[in-house]
Design goal:
Layout lengths: L1 H24 L3 E8 L4 H11 L4 E6 L4 E7 L3 H10 L4 E4 L1
Amino acid sequence: MKKDENTENENLKAKSIAEESHISWEDSDLLVKARILRSDIQLLAKYVEGLGHLGVITTTDKAKGEVMIQTTRYCWPELEKILSALPLQMEILP
């Protein structure tokens, strides 16, 4: 019986930790819309993919050069700083 109680307590602790972790990150997702020259979309994607952990680029309207940057509120300040230093003309959309 003691072993079952220990296992149950461990499971409850693990569940509690998982829930707390989820709560702390549930509002962290951030989607940033931007416009860039069509010819620079692929280059922007390569730059951001090269940074790996900061974000992902998705083209939303190729004809207009509109992209969506998927990142987190925690990574966006660093990614924004890097993007502003790139030799690309990019407009962040509201």
